[in-house]
Amino acid sequence: MHTILAQLGRYTKSTVLTPVFAGLEVVMEVLLPFITAMIIDEGLQKSNLHNIYLYGAVMVVMAVLSLIFGTLSGRFGAHASTGLAANLREAIYHKIQSLSFSNIDKYSTAGLVTRMTTDVTNVQNAFMMLIRVVIRVPLTIIFSLVLCFIINVQISMVFVVGMVILIAILLLVMFLATKVFNVVFTKYDNLNASVQENVAGIRVVKAFVREDYENKKFTKAANVLYTLFSKAERILAFNAPAMMLVIYGCIISICWIASHFIVGGTLTTGELTSLFSYVMSIMMSLMMLSMVVVMISMSSASIRRISEVLNDTPDMVNPDAPITEIPDGSIDFSNVAFAYQHSEEGKMALSDIDLHIDAGETIGIIGGTGSGKTSLVNLISRLYDVTEGSVSVGGHDVREYDMEVLRNQVSVVLQQNVLFSGSILENLRWGNPDASEEECVEVCKAACADEFIERFPEKYNTYIERGGANVSGGQRQRLCIARALLKKPRVLILDDSTSAVDTATDSKIRDSFARNIPGTTKIIIAQRISSVQDASRILVLEGGQINGFGTHDELMASNEIYRDIYESQQQGSGDFDTTPGKEDA
Questions:
Q1: pLDDT for 115-141, tens place per residue?
Q2: Residue 183 · residue 228 · CB < 8 Å
């Protein structure tokens, strides 16, 4: 809870004022029955019109003050709770941006979305109720009991017994409901994951006519939530009848006991009326308390899930005195071994990697699925840290650099090409926010992206839909390459980033690199031999280890894996797109 409250920030004042005004509202409310009794006893029963007017005026003033204090309490409470929710969402979002890949691997996308939406809303509602009730309920119970004991001690003991019974019932309900709610909110992740997966892959769903299957999967996830919520609501439904039973039991007991005191002349009609008002106030306060308990039970799981993200510490941080300039694009792997934190214990993604790459070289990387190609290049830009050994860029260990500087100079075009909603220019300027339109055009020519951009009616101002849904896979890849080139990096890494373009365009991109960025170290991961055979050297990976490293001719002569890949691709007649300039679809 301390982690959550630390996000209050400028809403702390509203948080403090809410219970203050709630307390003043309670003072007015508990005094009203006392004034009512005086009107009955000192005014009506004595036929004293002056007292009726006097105490009536006092009641009106107190009622107006109660209304004002209640309104202010509600206003400040709403301001504090919505402000806390806004700060929590912002804090979670900023925390996610600061986390390393290894941290983010622990969470699913749907899980993070649930934390920022459903979980924060639960905390907001619970906080709103809590800050209004934390003063209101205790003060109402205490003041009402004190006034009841002032009126009649024996009758007041009925309240005490009723409170004990009700508190016992509330504790039982809270215990049972909390166990269910702890499970409920983890199931939201499954529901959100089903929706997210379906929407993201809607084209595949329709292409394979799997709508019924996806509907059944979603229905199953929704039914799990329905079942759990129904179970929780059945438990909570016991609250109201239990409350009514205790309240009416108290009223009947008070009537029976009070009748003897009225007959004996030790209790007035006004005092009995005020006792009924106080019993309702006390019991309704306990009912309100039960609702708070339920909300806290519901939000406790949400609090833990939010705190898990906010308290997470990035696995990678900048050194105390980071290096802020990369001398050149040379790369060295020294006895490198690497394992993902959440992989099977002892399973290495990479092992025994010793490698030296000169600045300006073009290095091709070939290997089967799971051979460690992506893991290898992720270590260069320090998206992950090595488990053993070291990786150096420009003669310095990557862990000695400022991470922002390193990632600006080691530009990576990832396997999954991501474009964001906005114009083509806005997407390109992710590589350099200050780039001119001429610079954007230049890198697009280098990435062979200008070919299709010029055919758009609005050219570089063409709007890109979220995820690049309105351009083809090859077009997305070339835009992402252009975006990376705009950073003018020391090292450019293409992680299978030309797989969706035809071989002719692929060749043109590589020729453009040789002409335009000769001093940049280029690392190209590819499935096609044709994409890497002209590289300075080619690295063959198998099972996370180096199987071969040399030129195309050297590997053809000495490396069986490389030769088998080459021959199988030659026998398969290469790519279907062989006509120069043919556009990918």
A1: 888 888 888 888 888 888 777 888 888
A2: yes
